[in-house]
Amino acid sequence: MGRMTTGIIRDGVDGGPALRAPVRKAERVERMMRLTLQQKMERTGFEVRTVSVEHLEDIERDVEALRGEVDATLWEESLSHFRYELPRELPDAKSIIVVARPQPSLMVTLRHGGKSWGFIIPPSYADAAKVDKDSLEALDKALSPASYRYVKAQLPLKTLAARSGLVKYGKNNIGYIPRFGSFNRLTAFFSDMPCAEDQWQDREGLPGCDDCHACVRTCPTGAITEDRFLIRADRCLTNLNERDSSVPFPNWVDPQAHNALIGCMRCQRVCPYNRMALDFTSARGELSEEETALLLSGQREGEAAAALNEKLKGMGLDPAIFPRNLEVLLR
Ligand code: B12
Ligand code: SF4
Ligand code: SF4
User: Fold this and answer.
1) d(CA 121, CA 321)
2) Which among 42, 140, 241, 305 is least buried, having the fewest CB atoms inside 10 angstroms?
């Protein structure tokens, strides 16, 4: 995220007379104090909204209402771990703070067969822990001098973000923020911060989706359909390629469908709401011919494998999820 400007006010940058500087600083501090949490967080590159913990049941109801439309295995694997209750570590939580952090697509280069292969990794696959850490630091700073506690929320983040007005749904089911479209990572925290403004509201879709079918047409597996709002998650390439390499892809998946090292970028790349974010990329380095071979071999033991793991982690990537797509992409 090194290329993002933070908007933090720095003292003395406008180079005015030294004697006036303290007055200006005091004014700035006062002005800063008057800003809402949302405004303060925006200045440091985060989008944030808050809802009262009283809506936990509503969030559960929203998701439960769609149980019949979600493949049972996928429900069990991905949606049954949500906890619609106050965390034990923070029983006096009052607010749920939901945060969106703009995220670039990642570019990784691999050497294989004497050639360089450039691959894309969709936004949100890297730096999960960093986004949480940075969000907490920014919240702490924005709310200072008050001091609150935070506990990470195990909640359905898109629903929560849409219900707080932080994102609008695309027809592709992804949550969009104004300037960076779907190139964002969501996270949420319970806090004992009083919920001064409960931003709970109706979920909204992007207005442009009514007359656009680009993601429906481009989805390589027919996961996005016009006859229902929820995607057919069991058909989504992301669901299929996030699995272990030992699980083969179903026969009905066209090998040409694969387009990213993990996940799938098709419905995001084609979306007009992402036009301004398509160049938002972050190059994460290169793997040598030997490292690629090691990754493909599936060997996880030994010194070389440990070094590769460290290298991938340093690039913000999870070594466990790669070989599955890599094999198909290099064919
Ligand atoms: C399960 C899961 C998946 C599954 C299922 C996806 C799905 N659509 O549910 C699979 C593996 C397929 C998947 C894929 C991807 N995922 Co995913 N996934 C999750 C997970 C763990 C839960 C999502 C969830 O709650 N699903 C349940 C459904 C019921 O919730 P919902 O989609 O919000 O559904 C609501 C709407 O349908 C709405 N609704 C119903 N009818 C109508 C009608 C109208 C008009 C409106 C407005 C709304 C509406 O009601 C529902 C309930 O509120 C979250 C992490 C988390 N903790 O939340 C990440 C998460 C949602 N995924 C994420 C991402 C980035 C992706 C991918 C883009 C990855 C990639 N390829 O790059 C793809 C996108 C695929 C797609 N087109 O949706 C991000 C989304 C970020 C964002 N800004 O939206 C999350 C939040 C992870 C993160 N921390 O960043 N994912
Ligand atoms: S591609 Fe079109 S229909 Fe799909 S989410 Fe974007 S605007 Fe909506
Ligand atoms: S991520 Fe790919 S497979 Fe999944 S809905 Fe979007 S285009 Fe379809």
Assistant:
1) 11
2) 140
Burial 10-20 (b: 16+ CB within 10 A, else e): eeeeeeeeeee
Query: Ligand 1 centroid to 175 CA: how many Å?
Result: 8
CA distance 189 to 6: 22
Phi, psi of 144 (to 5 degrees): -60, 145
In a domain, 95, yes or no: yes
Interval 28-53: pLDDT, tens: 666 666 689 999 999 999 999 999 99
Q: Of the bound ligands, which one is closest to the alpha carbon of residue 230? A: 1
Give the CA dihedral 146, 152, 155, 156, nearest 10 degrees.
90
Q: Does residue 2 fall inside a structural domain?
A: no
123 within a domain of the structure (yes/no): yes
Beta strands in the chain (DSSP E): 47-52, 95-102, 105-112, 115-121, 150-152, 168-169, 175-176, 184-191, 281-287
- Verify whether ligand 3 is closer than 6 Å to residue 240 (CB atom): no
Ligand 3 touching residue 223 (CB < 6 A): yes
pTM: 0.90
- With a 6 A CB cut-off, is 209 part of the ligand 2 pocket? yes
CB of 188 within 8 A of CB of 98? yes
pLDDT class for 122, splitting at 50, 70, 90? very high
How many structural domains does the chain have?
1
Instruction: Using DSSP, state whether 312 is helix, strand or coil.
Output: helix
**Domain interval for residue 102:** 33-329
Please spell the DSSP secondary structure of 4-53, one letter per residue: ----PPPTTTT---GGGHHHHHHHHHHHHHHS-HHHHHHHTT-EEEEEEG
Residue with tokens 């680009």: 214
Q: pLDDT tens digits, residue range 144-170?
A: 999 999 999 999 999 999 999 999 999
Q: Is 7 contained in some domain?
A: no
151 contacts 89 by C-beta, under 8 angstroms: yes
Hunting for tokens 């720095």 — which residue is that?
Answer: 10
